[in-house]
Amino acid sequence: MRKFIGIILLVIIAWGLLITMKEIPFGEQKTKVGKYYIENGEVDTGASNIVTSVVVSYRSFDTLGEVTVLFLAAIGVGAVLATFQRKEKRKLEPSSLILNTGCRFLFPLILLFGAYIFIHGHLTPGGGFQGGAVIASAFVLVYLGCRGKRINQAGSKLAESLGGLTFVILGLIGLAVGGRYFLLNFLPKGEFNTLFSAGIIPIIYIAIGFKVGSELSGIIDQLMEES
Amino acid sequence: MIILASLLVVLMLVAAIAASVFKDLISAVIAGCMVSLIAAVLFYLLQAPDVAMAEASIGAALVSAVFIVAIKRTKRYEE
């Protein structure tokens, strides 16, 4: 009986989605703002990745809000898990030599890849959020593979705070220099499609990468510590 | 291109149904991880590499890790 009701509900949801999606003209140019970004993104921001020029230049205030939401989520997880009593250090069975060596070999390579993603955020696909998630997955690998290794809590908190501070201070400098709006791109644009281009976009993305990476690995650390 | 995309969508459906049917919760998490990975490939085929990267790293790696920690603290098999 319960399964039957479930199937009927699923059919109703699928039908609702179908009639909604049929009305949306996918792939057609309906708004003017998307066309504006594609045509003027290169000149306005100097970033060759259009997605980055939208996320960190046109809509960078939204990105600040997004980073704040992630920060609040990390604090929430910390507050919930801190109420449990810390148990004494249990004796963990050491992992096998092959697993241990493999993890220790892969860990710096994954970190390097994450750093590459967020440093080249204005040139190639990817950016601060993706790079931060890749860095956090490197920490997951270490927690699962090499038993008993923990991240340095103080260093992680420092990286997180510095990332957030850099973002806000850059925005305030833009406001002070230009006097028009928050997060103004006040640095020179440089040569298009080179590493040192697009003004403050790479700096902001590096800050976001550090912040997201340390926050996500902090969440993973707290979860793993309890189990 | 369209054949590859349809094949991936069918695989994704199979993995999603498997995730809800499995009694072993670790297998269900791996099936859910497979849904995310195929979604990442589909995003790449639809020319959204930024979204594909986020989906692959968060959906496949981090969410599975969180689920596995939760299973480790509770029970592995569903009754």
Shape of chain A: globular
What is the H-and-E element order of chain B? Answer: HHH
How far is the N terminus from the C terminus of chain B?
42 Å
Largest sheet of chain B: none
Care to count the β-strands of chain B? 0
Radius of gyration of chain A (Å): 22 Å
How many strand units of chain A?
0
Count of all domains of chain B:
1
Structural class computed from helices and strand pairing of chain A: mainly alpha
Give the chain pair forming the largest contact, with residue counts: A-B, 20 and 14 residues
Task: Report, as a whole number of angstroms, the end-to-end distance of chain A.
Answer: 38 Å
Question: Could you give a short account of the major beta sheet of chain A?
Answer: none
How many distinct domains of chain A? 1
Structural class of chain B: mainly alpha
Whole-number mean pLDDT of chain B: 89
Low-confidence stretches of chain B: none
Put simply, the count of helices of chain A is: 8
Radius of gyration of chain B: 14 Å
Brief write-up:
Chain A is mainly alpha-helical and 227 residues long. Helices cover 70% and strands 0% of the residues of chain A.
Question: How is the secondary structure organized here?
Answer:
The complex is a heterodimer of chains A (227) and B (79).
Chain A lengths: L1 H22 L8 H14 L4 H9 L1 H22 L15 H23 L8 H18 L7 H26 L22 H26 L1
Chain B lengths: L1 H20 L3 H21 L3 H25 L6
Helix pairs in contact in B: 1-2, 2-3
Verbal overview:
The complex is a heterodimer of chains A (227) and B (79). In chain A, 70% of the residues lie in helices and 0% in strands. Chain A is mostly helical and 227 residues long. Chain A has one domain. The radius of gyration of chain A is 22 Å and the shape is globular. The mean pLDDT of chain A is 83. Chain B contains 3 helices and no strands. The model of chain B has no long low-confidence stretch (mean pLDDT 89). Chain A binds chain B through residues 49, 51, 117, 125-127, 129-130, 133-134, 136-137, 140, 144, 216, 220, 223-224, 226-227, and chain B through 49-50, 52-54, 57-58, 61-62, 65-66, 69, 72-73.
